[in-house]
Amino acid sequence: MRRRDFLATTAAAASAPALIGGCAGSPGDSGPLEYLSLAWQKESIEVNKALVAEWNERNPSVKVRYVQGAWESVHDQLLTSFEGGEAPDIIHDEANDLTDFAHGGYLADLRPLLPEDLKSQISRANWETATIAGGIYGVPFLHDPRVLIANRKLLEESGVRMPTVGRPWSWGEFEDVAKELTRSRGNSRTYGVAWSMKEPVNQSVNLTMSTGGAVFHRERGKDVIRFDEADYGVPELIHRQVNEDRTASRSTLGMAGSDTLPGFFAGRYAIVPLNFSFRQQVQQQAPDGFEWVTLPMPAGRGAPGGGQFQGVSPQTLSVSQDTSRKKAAMAFIAFMTRPDHMARLAEGDWLVPTGREALRDPALNTDEHGWSTGLRIASDLRASPVLGVRGYPEWKDKVATPAFQEYYAGSIGLRALRDKLVDDGNRILARYQR
């Protein structure tokens, strides 16, 4: 059973009516606040709805209506609702999606609304993920970092060192481990690693932080793209594993993460780099007797933070600029992100909470299913270099996705990749920064 801080819960419940009693909205306001939620896993939906029900019971004068959204359509849905003046009051989204909405004036700057206890619970590094042009446009509450999910039996049989958060593999060591794990047995082959690159851009950019790179840089107050040695260290390694060492499967380059799981369970791949939340699918789909382990991503040598940094774009809760009940909307967000509630939301989604106290929740601090690995790397997570960059979505879709896919498949070399990313990319960014 999950242990809760009942004293804190009781105190918060007692103060909630006083907190929002005077901010139920203007005289013309009517009906509940609309909360657009993108929860999609059964457990996560249940937790969200339970918290909304609890809020409504405690705050009958400022009720909230749960509205189900979907990740694949939320950007277009929000854009349409913003332009039509019908946006939900409280918005669940991802930091990566906030830039254009913030610049467009659709989201409220939360700085004057944030309660001090919420501000102090979340680190400055996490607040930076939702900071755009000096304003804070969302409360970052859940992270989905990259990890390695590995076949424990194959690793133990190979005799390679098992990495820990305190002593992860270096990228060079990871390359050697992939060679040790790559074996041919008759007509079958086990690859050391399976990189799923159907959506290659975010992971390629975020992992450059482990080698001191960023791809996106600020020069003279503007965003520019560079692709120097620190920026291409990890992409070059992936290219080498696929095309030279043959330790990474070429067939997985066109796959999404979930597409690699059947081959992983069948022993065709020893390690699959995936987002932390994929552990739920692994746990649910793994055949009986299959043993798997969650490991930290490799670290670069000599990079900041010991080379363990990686970029992330957290899930966020924002307030619509058009709502006249901003204080009430913020009070609901503060309720949803209370330490015990944030931990419940993280557990339901198999994600890492951002709050310091939520990270200490006993239900999450367990080695089972790799929870402890995700919580221990939380301090190494930084704002993705792409956050706040105007023009990034266009660059990603039109330039970077096809370029990275061609490079990883061996169709173009490093120089051609750099030319596409930098030359074409900077033309796009310049257009957004005139």
From TrEMBL:
Coiled coil: none
Top-rank taxon: Bacteria
InterPro entries associated with the record: Bact_solute-bd_prot1 (IPR050490), SBP (IPR006059)
The protein's name: Extracellular solute-binding protein
